[in-house]
Write a structure and sequence with these properties.
The protein has 507 residues and is mainly alpha-helical. It has 20 helices and five strands. Helix 7 packs across helix 13 and helix 11 runs antiparallel to helix 12.
Amino acid sequence: MTELTVPDHLLTPARAVTTRATTDAELLASFLARCASDHTRRAYRRELERFLVHCAGRGQGLRDVLLEDLQQYQQLLAGDLDLALVGTKAEPRFMADGSVNPTYRPFTKTTLSAASQCIALTALRQCFAFATKTGYLPADPAHLLTIPKAPKKLRVERLLTKEQVDYVIDHVSHAQAEGAVARREQARARFLLKLLFATGARLNEVAQARMRDVWSDAQGRWWLDILFAKKDSARTVPLDLDTVAAFDHYRAVFDVSDAQAKSDMALILSARRLDKRGITDDAVANIVKATFGQAADNLAAQGFDDDATVLNNASTHWLRHACASYLLNVKGVAPTQVQQNLGHASLNTTAVYTHDDAHLRHFAITGQAPSESVTRPLPSARVAPAGPSLTLAPETIAEPGAGRAEVEPPGMAADRDAAFTALSDDARALLAAKDHDAQLRYVIRRINARFQSDDGAFSHLVQVRAEIAEFSAKHEPALHLAEALLTLYLQMLPSFAAWRHHVAHDE
């Protein structure tokens, strides 16, 4: 019987080479050039450079890496990294002249978080897949690499309150900037803060935006087109008039003409150049970080150490979280609309910002109302900052008792306590009678938001309670009145506690 022989070219098909890259560095440059997002490109570059430094210490290049090498690197990321690879702070890999920076270390921590490990391994797997498809590598050692999923976030903790955001904006707005450059920096910082909080846009989405992306329609409504976005998250976001006013002031200070405002000029401009050039993502992040830091110094000097710590830790992305939380929990905007504004692919991502549902569920099961102890109101931002870059205009701070009266009007305490007792009793009884339905929750939140924003709201609790009761009576009274009263009860507890400690200041 004749022995069957299989030609070698059938056993190992030849792979066409479709890249001119002959070195690892050239291959990485070609791979990174495919990244549509600057943010992704920077993240992948960082992770691939880390891996190359690790390989160089073992005398390996990409062509020498096997699956076991990748698995070992994965264990190092999750465990203790070689201290020779860990530095005290992030340093650029190359000097300005192109030479290798002797102080560069690929890592600043001995252990990466689960999310950072996921990014690192994803970058490696995609790079090796690209190298294999282009023929630079004969096979893909990362194909069988298992990447654990990052733990799901049940809640968002890195966010600022509306009060903290307002404090930072007020700090910038009332600064007295000396010189043309300082005035441009001030107008830019103020516009940036308002824009980021109003839209919830990502850092790179704002840094890459163009002047023409801010526009108004025939009805006089203003919008921001977010075109440089993640994957399919390009969108148009509404702008409030306060943010538009900050934009107009920013344009005026930078001498941006109407024609230029409709052009492809960068939206966020350099304050130190006169040719109206845009700035990088990192520059935008540094502006926001520096502004947070100066506001934090003000707070720390006045004894508000907790708030100062929050601002010192905050970054640009915290404003995105703050926007989502404010829209959902204070303004009562529907989750689907917030999802569209933020460009979330899944509604589940938006849902992690919803706090009211957790409060309602906790109260329904345990009967325990939230504590009335709240952080004391933030002071006026109109005091001189510790940093030298901005000098705030001197202004007298009202002493306690100045301005509006701090003492409750006669009978106010009794009326308030009686109304609150009724709210609590009604909410508990009606909630126990039926499972609550969330369909009208967002309408009720809007009523509550108007109630909270009313300057004299604390004297109108009974009136608002009657208004909600009348509204609920048109639907399923026992069902929706319970929802309305409970929501109002939960939201008003911190407000009353804050009001008791409130000291008004004359503007």
